[in-house]
Amino acid sequence: MSDTMPDIDVLIEAKGWEAVEGLEALVARAATTVLAEAGRPAAGVSFLMGDDATIRRLNASFRGKDMPTNVLSFPAPSMPGDPALVLGDIALAFETCAREAEAEGKTLVDHLTHLVVHGTLHLLGHDHETAAEAEAMEALEIRLLAGLGIADPYAASEPENPVTAADGGAA
Q1: I need a labelling partner for 103 at 20 to 30 A (CA). Which of 2, 39, 43, 62 fits?
Q2: Alpha-carbon dihedral sign for residues 58, 75, 4, 70
Q3: SS3 for 9?
Q4: What is the pTM of this model?
């Protein structure tokens, strides 16, 4: 890991992800944008590109929710006052991501980019447990995605908490 470049690892473990042309570059670009915004340009993040079955097991084990979800974030432990070089891991479920993109009339690339931004923000401590937190996090996501050339993902549907409404509560 260099002092100015993030260490983004992408592990593809499920079929379907090969349909996303330039997947590793897409994930790296979205995560790097978030890390730069947060002043953590050299931080490391690992991504697991899994399937619904894998993410369901992780969701059940770590969150007590026996269902697949679109994205899960697992922050690495850090010492207070000592920013971690490795922020943590993010896992995404292909089938859920593809289903949501289709249902919302979005491209898989745009939806995946949104979820990478969303998951990386979670690793940086952002959350959406309260209305105020959700509003702040969504505003940051919208701004970061605009910088990546992606339209506001919340403009089309406005449930109380759009990111978590259909997925059992992404974390």
Answers
A1: 62
A2: positive
A3: strand
A4: 0.87
